[in-house]
Amino acid sequence: MTRHLIKALINALPRFAEEEGDFYAVSRDTLIAGLSEIQGISAEVAGNTVNLCEALLDSLATLKPQDLQRGEWCFVSFPAQLMALSALTALIDPGSRYFETDFWNTRDVDPSKTERQREVLQIIENRRNDRHLKQKAEPVRYIHVAWSMIKHEGKVLFFHREDKTRHEKKSGNYGLIGGRVNQKDLSHFDGNMQDKLRLLQSADRASIKPALAETLKRELLEEVGLEYEQHYVFRPWRALRPYRQVQGAKSNHALTEYFLEIYAIDLTLEGFCLLQQKIAKSTAEFAWFSLDEIAQGKTSDGKTAYIEALYDDFEDRDYLKFALEDLEDSFKTNYINCHDPAKFRIVLPRDERQQILAGTPGKESAIDFQLNESTLSLLLGLAAHLREFSFVEKDTSIALHPYGWLEVEDDCELQTELVELAESFKDSKDIVIENQKDRWFRLSILPDCVFFDDSYFSCSVDQKDMQSRKSKVRVTAMRREFGTRLGTVGKDKKEPKVPINVVKSLDNLNKGNRNDSLTDSVRDSYRKSQLHDSLAKLGMRGLLRQDAGAVKIYCEFVMN
């Protein structure tokens, strides 16, 4: 019956000449009356048919808008008439198809076919959205999303998007870790499969919100391998206002309304270490964006952020940056001994016959602990890792993590030794060994407070440089390679440029040419030079120190 009505309507349509530009209009009332009379149907049924076809042809922009406002149908042009006839004829012809029968099939299809589906939807939906008369096109796809905010040392972690090589430039190729709610996340919902699908594909944000926590847990497990509670907990950070965009992975592409909730992540030690390992193994999958790069939308090496909804919600990207600055880091270092380095430091000896020194810089004293070779070797390894010194080789039973943490395998000899080490220092306020679950260990002191015996270090200057007319010469500050229970710590060097007069004064002091004016001059000049900072980075507490009223050089200082 419907096909007969549309066929009759086609015969009554207005016409536009293929040449010369002649045309005529037909009123809507005439179309309804004619259809009612010819088909013997009520005016209501005829009116519904005409109105439905009018909506179709108007959406195709084939009818003149000004004529429609007067209640008349008039084609814009002959090609517009052809477009209208094509659409209406396809409706009445059972054999008509704009696409092959299996065009929209998505199961086990070639990627090229998926791309064709995407291209069609992208063109149609972009046209529908961009050409809406009121710029308020209705979405046909609704997505509810949980995003995670993992912040560390002023940077936020992003994950390569689902469409890894196929994305719009504006949209970006890296997004926050997270994803959309699916049927499995609706564990709180009592309805059947049909009810769940209707809810998922709706704008009912309130009903779906309880599922977002499950979505977040699932996505963090799938994308990063993090288990809720064991590796992290989370808290709400921001609920974004609905965001519309023609977007979607693969061929799931349409004008979409996104409902996004962002959660701040707090990592456990185990979660933090696992995340670092995951990132190290999959560098192409992850990217750290600084807060400035987030505001700019891209990193210095060209990675782009897909967070348009976040930009839209804040409106001003500087406000977004300020909000992220206020957000606490997802993992806190929390050293137990966190004295100010200007007021406290420890110095580890080179052999067990010496003692550990601790206290105010320049006034350190021996702590009450009897070292043995094994204990010192463990401490030196932990301290070297805390200071981020490189190991040229390490024990195979450990993994090294940031902030001085090391992870040891279960039931190995080193694990037993580390447990005993932590126990032996449990009452010490100076040397603090953290033990987490007999698996993670560290020397829990601010790294800038930890130094090593002077005998590990040396300084040298090339005599040729001293004979030049340069105002500054290169001083090679060296830390020797040394062994520890964790492995061998590699040698390292810094080569700061130091004023030549300072170097000459140091050389005179080293040769025993001491007087008060020389001592005062060289001490003040040395501390202002890059040499002092370079030695501190290598782990030496200072080239010059005062002992029994005399200022001395405390490491090998040679002119080559």
From TrEMBL:
Domain of life: Bacteria
Gene3D superfamilies: Nucleoside Triphosphate Pyrophosphohydrolase
UniProt domain Nudix hydrolase: residue ranges: 141-312
Organism: Methylotuvimicrobium alcaliphilum (strain DSM 19304 / NCIMB 14124 / VKM B-2133 / 20Z) (Methylomicrobium alcaliphilum)
Protein's UniProt name: Nudix hydrolase domain-containing protein
GO molecular function, one term: catalytic activity
